[in-house]
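Quick board copy: two proteins, each given as sequence then tokens.
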Amino acid sequence: MNPRWIALWALLASALIPTTAIDAMGLTLPAIRAYFSVDSHVDMLTGLVGSAAAFSFAVSAPLMGRVIDRVGYRSVYVASLMLFGIVGAAGGLLADLKVLVVSRAVIGVSVAGALTAGLTGISYLDPVRRGKALGFHALVGSAGAMVLFVVVAQLVGYGWRIAFMVHLLGFLLIPLALALPKHGGARPDERAERALSRAGPLFAGVDAKLMATTALAGIVMFSVPMLAPFYLIGIGVTQPALFALPLSIMAFAAMVSAVCYGYVVARMGIAGTFAIGFVLMAAGLGLAGTAGSIAVFTLGLTLIGASLCMLCPNISAAAMAGAGGRPGQAVGVTSAILHGVPIVFPLIVRGGTLGEQPELVFLGFGAAAAFGAGFYMLLCLRRGGLEVRH
């Protein structure tokens, strides 16, 4: 295979790392809790096994971005994959639940390094290829999630320790990562200096509007799957097997949208793509929050899924466009916000008291998405802000 294509696949494959370590491993938690049931504080520690990786990922992503901009994305990517494979697989051998929690925190750092390195590598592509690559990066993540959930669920049937072997995926990706060019750390240029002067060096050119956009996309991405079963129960759908139907179609819609992203951003620009994404999100959340049947609710989630794979790759594109010579830092900041904001809102994400009225959550976020759509439409009309045409 052409080394250029191998390198591209290495960058796209970074989308599999957070799904493997954070999302899919949630399926192991019931078995882990049962195995360590005699331990004190087992419920709290089991919860930390599930959340430690996500928390450390959100905290360490900006730092990993700074390291990438200094030493190059290839080095950080390879090192992160090695750490991911070693520590992740070793988690299945641990006999102490507290040590397992610590290992999951370390895994979060490796996830931050691998994902941020992959996205930074994409930022080095020319604008047209970059837009398509970001869309396919989201596609790989969505398709990989569907496969990994099935694989991990099957492995858990043989024991939760066996399921931890999926982290060996890191070793399988190392040969691909070694095909990447040996870029050194990027040096800031005039464009980067202007961006940093606006948003501050701490945020690497990621300004307030992009932060708000990223936060809204992140909280919708995490809260909708969590609150969907509560809403379905509220409208009389009580069969657990039916809960997966809207979410599966939502994931499929995200995959289709990811394929289309590169073409949309090439024609509409970054601000225009944000406007389209928020229109889809507002419509989907409005339908989901007022649905009286599973069919209408599924249609709402379909639009939400399509919106997320317009918004998420576009957030990375906007961060890269504003960062100039420091793409790693900018991508690290947006990744931290995208995956870290839900941690700040545990009641929404975990279906606490707001889970009793999920329709209010959907409609509230729908109103915020409508505001975002209007804002970016005005931005396009002004031909300023984040508008970047390829």
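And the next:
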Amino acid sequence: MSYLTWLIGTSALFFVLERFWPWRREQQSLRPGVRRDLGFLAVNGHLFSLLAAGVTGAIALAATSALQAMGLRLGHSPIREWPIIAQFCAFLVLSDFLQWCIHNLLHRVPWLWTFHKVHHSITTMDWIGNWHFHWMEIVVYRCLQWLPLAWLDAAPEATFAVAVVSTIWGDLNHANLNVELGRLGYVFNSPRMHLWHHDQSAEGGIAKNFGVIFSLWDFLFGTAFWPRDREPVQLGYPGVTEMPVGLGGQLIWPIRPPRGNADSP
């Protein structure tokens, strides 16, 4: 089954779940901005992701060959001898930790934060918000993850399974679903915890809860903030009104930001 098939199926699943078992019942499925976010889904989930996969795949292959010619032992990782489930677990943990590190950088490096502001312009949270981000983030993530993951050299079956799980979990984190994990919330991320990542206030620090699948990284490195008895008052980021409303405007805005908008949170 292709990744695109999984993407369509997962999108349909979360739409149905939010429609019949919403966490915030007053929140409408056809909320303002939903057509724009369907555009982001088309660009980031379909068009640009396929284009980026082809381009970055070719670049990665050339870079791998060049590094191997220089003596770097890529493609000789011992995990290739492991069972697929063990390769899946190793790839999942490493890729998720790298995503935590990169997500942290998106908030702390002013130039990267300018692009990441597009994602944080979300003011109504649902599953499709997972796809509301600037395409430059795909480039950043793939470039910074490439070498460690290339060294790990997991089987294609394992890497594909991790991509599927990461997509599902990303949709879940943004979904309008009241998922309570109990003590497992100290290990795995959830909609209740991730909602606080999109909190507009400075409560708990403006930059918090960077985890994608594992919340464990945030608890280990002191970036976790999760008042379990309440929700954020307002989502977004300070000064979110600077962001254009439409898809085209948000895609262009980080490239030509007004003065003073590159300040990190």
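Board note added afterward: The mean pLDDT is 87.
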